[in-house]
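Quick illustration, no need to memorize.
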Amino acid sequence: MADTDWTEYSPEAIDFLYATYGIRLPDDMPRWIEAGLLPTEVNLAIVLHDQGFTPKVVSTAYMGNEPILDYFRRALA
């Protein structure tokens, strides 16, 4: 699933992600993309969602002096 544009996910994969992680790609990914994620960063959206972040909060959240998106991108690399 890594590096796949979220629009290319099968309906079964979308259902699996919703059942497993509570993120519904057709509804949630556009908001995450507006917050600064790339369409291929589904795993990052899942991690942020699991950590309790919302797309609205992500654009203003920092870990120390580092924007939270950059922090999690580096941590997941």
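The chain has a mean pLDDT of 89.
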